[in-house]
Fold each of these.
Amino acid sequence: MYMFKYILKRVGLLLMTFIIIEIISFVLIKALPLVITVGIGQDREIIEMQFRSRHYYDPIPVQFFYYLKLIFTKGDFGICYNLPEYRNQSVVAVFQSKLPPTILINIYSTIFAVPIGIGLGIFAALKKNKWQDQSISTLVMVFISVPSFVYAFLVQYLFCFVLGWFPLIMNAGYNYFSWSMFRSMLPAVISLSFGSVAGYARYTRAELTEVLTNDYMLLARTKGLTKPQATTRHALRNAMVPIFPSIIGEFIHVMSGSLIIESIFAVPGVGGLFLASINALDYDTFMFLSAFYILIGLVASLVVDLSYGIIDPRIRMGAK
C-alpha cells in the first residue's frame, strides 16, 4: 500500500514538473522571432498560409492552446518547416528515423562501460590505499572532470586520424547492425564510455570499501570463509544494491550528454536533430525533442528510486 501511494505521488510530481518545464520551454522558444526559410522552388506565401493555419502568428497563449489541441485531438506534434532536409515532414516521423543510432550508441557505450567500470571499482576497493587504488582513483577523477567532447577530439585524432583504426565520422545508411557500421560507431561509443567507466568505478569502490569494513564481514571470516568467499558471497551482493540503480541513471545521463558527441562524429541521431532545430528556430521540432529529453530524465529518476525497493526487499518506498 505504501509503495502504491508513493508511486502515485511520484507520477503526479513527475507530470507536474514535466508540464511546467514544457510551458516554460514553449514560452521561451515562441518569444524568439519567427523565421521563415524558403527553399528552392517554394513559395513564401504558401509557407505563411501554413503558419497561419497553425496559428503561429497569434499571441503565445493562443498558440499554446492550439498546439495542445492538435496533440490531443489529432496526435499532431507539428511539422519540420525550417529544416531543409525534412521540410513539411511530420516531427514524429523524423524523430523515429533518427532514434535508432542514438539508442544504439548509448546501449553500446553502456555495455562497454558497465563491466570495465565495476571491475575497476572492485579491484580498487580490494587494493585500498595501495598504489593500484591510488592510480585508479586518480584516473577516475580525471575522467569525471574532463568533458566528454574533449575525449571525442582525442579519440578522433588518435584512433581515427593517426592510427586509422576507425573512420572519422559514422557511415551513412540504415544498416545499423553491419560490421562496417558498428566500426564507424565505435569512436562515439568510446568517447561516451570514459565518463561512465569513471562513474561506475567510483560508485563501486565507495560502496564496496564501506561494506568490507562492516562487522558481518568479520563474522563471515570467523565462521571459516576465506576472504574471496566472504567478498563474493556477502560484500559484493550488498555493495551492488545502490550500484545497479545508478546504471539506469548513468545511461540516461549518457543519452543526454550524447548531443555534442553525435555532432562531432556526424551520428545521424536525435542529438544532431535537436541542435539543428535550435539553430534553425524550428519550433515544433524543438518542442517535441525537448519533451523527449525532459521525459526520459524524469522517468529515469522515478525508475531509479523504485528499483531500490525491487533490488533490496528491506527498502519500502513511502513507508514511515
Note: The two ends are 12 Å apart (CA to CA).
Amino acid sequence: MVQRQPDSGSTSGAGTARLLVVLLAFAWGFMWIATATALRDIAPWTLRMAGTGLGAAVLFIAAKAAGYDLTVPRRQRFHVMAGGFFNVGAFHILMAFSQLHGATSRTVIIAYTMPIWVAVFSVLLLHERLDRLRTIALTLCVAGIVILVGPLFADGFPAFVLYAFTGAVSWAFGTVYMKWQHVTVPPLANAAWQLLFGFCFLLAGTLIFEGVPRLWPISTSSILALAYIGLFGVGLAHFLWWSIVGRLSPLTASIGALLVPVVGVSASIVLLGERPTLADGIGFVLIFAAAASVLLRPAVQRR
C-alpha cells in the first residue's frame, strides 16, 4: 500500500507551497542571467566563491531564525563535505566556465540533463532497475543532446559543452552519493552545510587560480547580480526548496525543477538577447521531456 505524503494541514498551506514552487523556479531561473551579467566583471572562481559564501550565510541565518536544527552527526560529516564538493563546488564553477565560453540558454539546457544522469548513477550505485520509462528518458536525452550540440562541432570542440556536461554529471553523482552512503542528515541542515563546504572548496580554488579575490571596482549591474546570486539564487532558493519539500509531495516539489530551465532559457532570450536555433529548440524539448519523465516517475508508480 502506498503511504500518502503528510499534508501541511490546510488547503491554504498547500496553496502557499505551490506559490513557493513558482517563486523558486524564478529564483533559480534568473540566477543564470545574474551569473552571465556578473561574469562580465568578476572572474569565475571569485564570483562563485562570493555568491556561495553569501548564500550559505543567508541560509544559516534563515534556518536558525526558523528554528531548524542544523546538527550533523560526526560519522556523516565527511559525506556531507563530499556532497558539498560535487553538488555545490564543482557544479557551480563548471557552470560558470560554461556560461563564460558559451550561450547561457544552451548551458541551462545541458545542466538540466541532471535527472537523467541521476537515473544512470542509481542503476550503477544503488542497483536500481533500468526500467522502460528510464530507458525512454535516456534515449530522449541522448537524442536531444546530439541534436543540440551536433551543429556546434562544425567549428571544433566547444569547451562550454564539456564544462556543462561535467557539471551536470557532478551534480547528479553528488545527489546519488548521499543516498549511496545512507546519509540521514535532515534536508535543510544537509543543504546548509553543503553550501558551507562548497564555499570552502571555491575559496581554495580562488586563491590557487586567481589569487586574492577582486570584487572592486566593478559595475553596478555586476554588484546587483552578485547580490541576487547570493541572497536569492543560492540562500533564499535553498531555503524555499526545503520548505516546499516539507509541505508538498516530492512529485509536486519536483515540478519546480522542471520550471527552472523554462524560466532560464526564456529569460536568456529576453534579457540577454540570445537567439536559439531550431536545433536548440528541438534539443531543449527532447531533454525537457526526458527530465520530466524521470522526475514524474513516482506518479506512474502510484497509478
Note: The chain has twelve helices and no strands.
Amino acid sequence: MSIEEPIISFDNVMVHYGDGAPVLKNVNLSLYKKSFHFLTGASGSGKTTLMRLLYMGIKPSSGILKIFNKDVAEISREELFEIRRKIGVVFQDFNLLNHLTVLENVALPLKVIGDNEKRRENQAKEILDWVGLGGCFNTLPDVLSGGQKQRVAIARAVIARPDILLADEPTGNVDEQIANKLMGLFYGMHQMGTCVIVATHYRQFVDTFHYNELRIENGKIVASKSNVGQGGGILI
C-alpha cells in the first residue's frame, strides 16, 4: 500500500528577521490533502509569518519547507508561479484590484488558467450569489464595506478549487451569520480534497468545529486538538 505524501511539510524550519530573535523556531509539521486546520495563537505569535511561508512570500531562514514535494528554497520563478496557481489565499488586506469590478476580481483566477469568458462569468456569479453579493457584480471594490470586500476576497480564493486554501482571519469583518456561511464554504472545499488552513482569533469556531488546532506558542507549534483520523495534520 502506498503512503500518502504530505502536501506541505516543515522540517526544522526557523524564521527570523535580520538579527532579531526567531519568530518561528524548529517547526516540524506535515499537512495532507482533504484536511482542515485552525491556526491559533496570541497576537505576534507568528501566525502571519507562518502563512507567509506557506504562500512563499518569504523563505525559511533555516530548515526545509516543501510544498507539493518541492523545496521552496530551490524553486525557480516559473515553478513559483505554477505552484501559487494551486493555492488560494485570503489576505487580511483583501488585495482586490480596484480597477476591476467585483465579478472580474472573483473570475480572475479562472482567467489566469485559461477558462473561457462565459464559464468564468457564470462561476463567479454563482459564488457571489452564495456569499450574498449577487447585487454587486458590476460594483468596484472601493465602494464596498470591509465585510463585503472580505467576501469578495474569499470568493476569489476558492473559485478555482485550489489544492491549498490559506485564510488569514477570514471572518474578522463579517457578522456571525455570514461567518458561519463562509465556514460552510471552507468545509465544502475541505470535503472536495483541499487542505484548508484558517488563521483565527475567533475561539467559538475553534471550539465548535472539530478540526485540528495548530496553536503557536513562543514560536513553536503545539497540537492542542488533533483529529488526525478525520484527515488532519500530523506533527512529526
Note: The first strand starts at residue 8 and ends at 15.
